[in-house]
Automatic annotation (TrEMBL):
Species whose genome carries this gene: Methanoculleus taiwanensis
Top-level division of the source organism's lineage: Archaea
Protein name per its UniProtKB record: DUF362 domain-containing protein
Ranges of residues in domain DUF362: 38-243
Lineage, opening ranks: Archaea, Methanobacteriati, Methanobacteriota, Stenosarchaea group, Methanomicrobia
């Protein structure tokens, strides 16, 4: 679907999330993970059902697959942006799933000071740097699952790069400085989002694009139903494909206008080496016949406006 390839993005029709995620794991070579500790970042920004939040079937399929390939420990860590994190996770059924499937849940709002790592760099757009959860810095493997959504509060779109905001502290340990207030008030918000991603790796990101929001977002919007799972280890490549998919349905002016790799989240992340630098460097890999037509249309959009 493109050449030469520096990153692969897998596409699979998602009538069965478990089968689709299994196919992605196999193609991406995830496993065996014997003795490995996995940090899992899902999407629980608000107490709203999929596609605002991770679908319960997607979470279950990911955890079961990680268990199947031998993970010693799975820790889902989260901080919600719209609402109390513990309440959001409770209402979304995450604690029930954890008990049933045997994984741990960490509410990042409750982390002690030594659970955070300070990131300070003069090249950052953040005035004081930021704090990132050590769970994601120290894990043997990091898996993320995100949704397909636009974002009306300044992010413009919330895919894998934006989902990383949920592993940054809201406040410093003293409570005197609010990092999220800075982020949402800054004209550099989209650059700041991209910069978070420089400081942790992802071994696999699964974007649940069975449905999504083409306008509005992140908690509600105009519903589309692509019926796909997208996956990659490269967040820039994955988000570029997600934007192309949104464009295929028609989306907000901020998503539709200009070249994809000129959009601030994408451009800054690529500049920092988080992922590929151009649409030509990513390869689409459909994993079943039904995904081929979607891959062809996404490739066309990437070639024309990437």
């Amino acid at each position: 679907m493109a050449s030469p390839a520096a990153a692969e993005v897998y596409l699979v029709r998602a009538a069965d999330r478990a089968a689709g995620i299994g196919a992605v794991f196999e193609e991406a070579g995830i496993g065996p993970l014997t003795g490995k500790r996995v940090a899992l970042k899902a999407n629980y920004n608000s107490d709203d059902p999929f596609p605002a939040s991770t679908h319960p079937d997607a979470l279950e399929a990911l955890v079961r697959r990680l268990n199947d390939v031998g993970a010693r420990e799975i820790v889902l860590a989260e901080r919600s942006g719209m609402g109390d994190t513990r309440t959001v996770l409770q209402n979304r059924g995450v604690f029930d799933s954890a008990e049933a499937l045997g994984f741990d849940v960490v509410v990042l709002d409750d982390l002690p000071a030594d659970g955070w790592e300070a990131i300070a760099d003069p090249d950052l757009s953040w005035k004081r740097g930021f704090l990132i959860a050590k769970i994601f810095r120290d894990a043997d493997l990091v898996v993320q699952t995100c949704c397909l959504k636009t974002h009306r509060f300044g992010g413009h779109f919330t895919l894998s790069l934006k989902n990383s905001v949920g592993l940054v502290a809201r406040h410093d340990p003293s409570g005197e400085y609010n990092y999220m207030a800075e982020l949402h008030a800054s004209p550099d918000q989209r650059r700041m989002i991209a910069e978070i991603n420089r400081y942790y790796r992802t071994d696999l990101v699964v974007m649940d694009a069975t449905a999504g929001f083409a306008t509005g977002g992140p908690e509600a919007g105009s519903l589309i139903e692509p019926g796909l799972l997208l996956a990659s280890s490269d967040r820039v490549a994955l988000d570029a494909v997600g934007i192309a998919l949104l464009r295929s349905y028609g989306s907000t002016p901020q998503v539709m206008k200009g070249r994809i790799f000129d959009l601030e989240q994408i451009a800054r992340a690529a500049e920092l080496g988080v992922g590929v630098r151009s649409a030509e460097e990513l390869r689409l890999v459909p994993l079943d016949p039904a995904a081929k037509s979607a891959a062809t249309e996404i490739r066309r959009i990437l070639d024309e406006t990437g």
